Amino acid sequence: MLDFDKLDLDLLRLIVEEPRAGVREYSRRLNIARNTAQSRINKLESSGVLVSWRPQIDLAPLGYTVMAFVHVHIAQSHLEPTLDRLTRIPELIEANTVSGDGDLLCRFVARDNSHFGEVLQEVNGTEGVLRTRSEIVLSRRVWPRSIPIVAKLRTDQNSGRING
Q1: Contact 88, 135 (CB under 8 A)
Q2: Is 6-54 a CATH 1.10.10.10 domain?
Q3: Domain ranges, ordered by start, for the chain
Q4: Domain named HTH asnC-type: which ranges (predicted)?
Q5: Within 13 Å and on the Cβ side, how many CA atoms surround 32?
């Protein structure tokens, strides 16, 4: 684990909560020099902590109202070529190798249940896919988040449980 101090964590929290505020505003809120804020941001980026400045998009208003998680079982030693083929399916929005049931846990979106059936047929017809098991999301309760972990790290530093 790289060494991040309280200032790094406070800056990271600001970036996640208000990504459009800009370096000048971050430095003003944290009462630090603009160059300090920029160098800390560069450190967060180069260390791989801050991986994107992309906005989070809800695809439902764009007509993709169905979301599903699909466990994909892949023929032995065919993971990479099969994953490459699966990424050609535009409705695939996330894929992770996992332990447990299946080799990949993928997140797909679709316009409706009928469209999801078509997407699932395409997945099952992909060379290297042995079988799938899907679960349709009824409602999203918690969006992907990182702030609770950043806050926990900050609290742990204040209590002396980690160095920083």
Answers
A1: no
A2: yes
A3: 6-54, 60-136
A4: 4-65
A5: 17
Which CATH class for the 60-136 domain?
alpha beta
- Of the candidates 28, 87, 18, 24, which has an alpha carbon nearest to the alpha carbon of residue 53? 18
Structure pTM?
Answer: 0.80
Specify the pLDDT at position 2: 64
Question: Which backbone phi and psi does 106 adopt, to 5 degrees?
Answer: -115, 150
Nearest to 72 by CA among 56, 49, 54, 89: 89
Same fold, 6-54 and 60-136: no
pLDDT digits (tens, 9 = 90+) for 86-116: 999 999 999 999 998 889 999 999 999 999 9
SS3 call for 49: coil
Q: What is the pLDDT of residues 33-59, one digit of tens each?
A: 999 999 999 999 999 999 988 888 899
